[in-house]
Design brief:
This protein is α+β, with helices and mostly antiparallel strands. The protein has helices at 2-34, 51-58, 72-77, 83-96, 115-120, 153-157, 172-176, and strands spanning 63-68, 101-106, 131-136, 139-144, 149-151, 168-170. A 4-stranded mixed sheet has the order 2-1-3-4. Strand 3 (131-136) and strand 4 (139-144) form a beta hairpin. Helix 2 crosses helix 4 (83-96). The termini are far apart.
Length: 177
């Protein structure tokens, strides 16, 4: 009888602890969607938006869709380009603090070429693999992922060698905003 009493008490306590963890997880995940809790500890704050972009996003009244014509998994595996999904996630977080919304979608247009026609009706240019499409209603702006980066001017002054890695700076925030 004593083993049954202690065993059932242990099961009840375990169930209560699991329930508390689940509720805490739900609350924290909803808070993380609403408020950016990730910290950018890089020296140049490369994964954080500037205050002007944050203000624009918080004051946004319309819904905006950002379509990246490149698979997210591929971007996350590439040097330099792996910061694009992290930055775009910040756009969603700060927009959710206002009245607007930013919806981010990743497409592989080699596998799904029909997605280009969705944006082409409001854009006269060419949308290719590597394009980033920002659309709001019938307004569409397209940029290429490669234009989000520029060569670091301090690395140009160093002696060039074939083994030296090219250093790039992210300049895509102003284009997206």
């Amino acid at each position: 009888m004593k083993k049954l009493k202690y065993g059932s008490m242990a099961a009840v306590i375990t169930a209560i602890v699991i329930a508390i963890v689940i509720v805490l997880n739900i609350v924290m995940s909803s808070l993380m969607k609403r408020y950016p809790i990730k910290f950018d500890l890089t020296s140049d704050n490369r994964y954080e938006l500037c205050s002007e972009s944050k203000t624009v996003l918080k004051n946004m009244k319309s819904d905006v869709e950002i379509a990246v014509m490149y698979p997210e998994e591929t971007l996350k595996q590439m040097n330099y380009y792996n910061m694009i999904p992290a930055i775009l996630e910040k756009y969603q977080v700060y927009a959710n603090q206002g009245k607007g919304n930013v919806d981010i979608k990743y497409y592989d247009i080699t596998k799904d070429p029909d997605v280009v026609s969705k944006y082409s009706k409001n854009y006269n240019g060419t949308i290719t693999q590597g394009s980033v499409v920002v659309s709001c209603g019938d307004k569409v702006k397209v940029a290429n992922i490669k234009s989000f980066f520029t060569q670091d001017s301090s690395s140009q002054n160093q002696t060039q060698s074939s083994s030296q890695e090219q250093k790039l700076l992210f300049v895509g925030e102003s284009t997206i905003t």
